[in-house]
Amino acid sequence: MKTFPNGFLWGASTAPHQTEGNNVNSDFWANEGRSPGMEFSGDATDSYHRYREDMQLLADAGLNSYRFGIEWARIEPRPGMISRAELAHYRRMIDTALEFGLTPVVTLHHFTNPKWFADEGGWLGAGAVDRFRSYVSAATDILEGVPWVCTINEPNMFAMMTGMARLLSDPEARKKWTSPTVEGERRQLPAPDPEIGRILIDAHHAVRDIVRENTGAKVGWTVANRAFEVRPGAEEKAAELSYVWEDLYLEAARGDDFVGVQSYSAQWVNTDGIEPYPPHPDNTLVGTAYRPDALGIATRHAWEVTGGVPILVTENGIATGDDTRRIAYTDAALRALADAMNQGIDVRGYLHWSLLDNFEWGHWEPTFGLIAVDRETFERTPKPSLSWLGEVARRNGLE
Description:
Layout: E1 2-3, E2 9-13, H1 16-19, H2 27-31, H3 47-60, E3 65-69, H4 72-75, H5 84-99, E4 103-107, H6 115-119, H7 128-139, E5 148-153, H8 155-165, H9 171-174, H10 194-214, E6 218-225, E7 228-230, H11 235-251, E8 259-263, E9 267-270, E10 273-274, H12 294-306, E11 311-316, H13 323-342, E12 347-353, E13 371-373, E14 380-382, H14 384-395, E15 397-398
Parallel strand pairs: 2-3, 2-12, 3-4, 4-5, 5-6, 6-8, 7-9, 8-11, 11-12
Antiparallel strand pairs: 1-15, 9-10, 13-14
Helix pairs in contact: 7-10, 8-10, 12-13, 13-14
């Protein structure tokens, strides 16, 4: 038996835009469908109304934690106009999680912005950090009893997405845009712009202090971990890419209470750069390699670069229509995580991506969920992987 520490968090994660539905005031909603092949979120999984059912399924399975986000565009639909009704809605979500014995892990920003913020220039606008600080000041009013707060989800990926958003102003360039969550046979994603990254770092540090002042929560942010592996002779190139893609953001977490590790697959780096994934029968529905060991690689790297900041695995999973493969992947990922922990790395919990099959930022085909959702009726159907992970949580270990 591979056992985990007492108090270890076992759960699953979601994001508001991917599950709530009808986030009509957000910039992502406004941009849906503008690029070829991009689908609409619409009602999503209607979790705005069905969050209680979602949480009950999670808790009944034996899991003890739920990571979800609050939507800035709902809370502040116009500049300076704070919706008390929406704050109350998210407070009810927190209370529901606590009622079911689920430790809430709340994300303040998960890729989407209010449309008015985007119209002001977004994160490249002169007042971006002040705007974000104002929103977080309002949001912390409802966070009593929340022990974990993530300020910004995957700032490295978000910096890349912010750079890509510039393409939307160019009709010809817009035709070449593809969702960052669907890889497959297409061009490599551009590296995130460090200048945009530094703006997000400033925003993170600014609101980190607000969360600490106004709540008793541990505060950090989550980083998309690429789990780079290095071909012989490519050490210098790997160090360069690692800094641009991850280390800039991991270094910024050195003063945090935790850092969220988000890992799905690994990538090789050669002297020319990141190697594209070749087509292979084992590749996932988003074109990535089947690499559950990536979680161990990512955990070790985050621990090393942050200088020993405690780790919370805030996302790990696989896009597959074969749930037996999801179980096998998760089992292997957890064993890799346990091996890293046995080397002295402080990991506080594991939150699977995702609780639900949901809207994957422009596409519905990739299925990451522990629970299937009928898009017409919204009926939830738990998969065997949910009960399997629940049993792991009840044992607090792997057989």
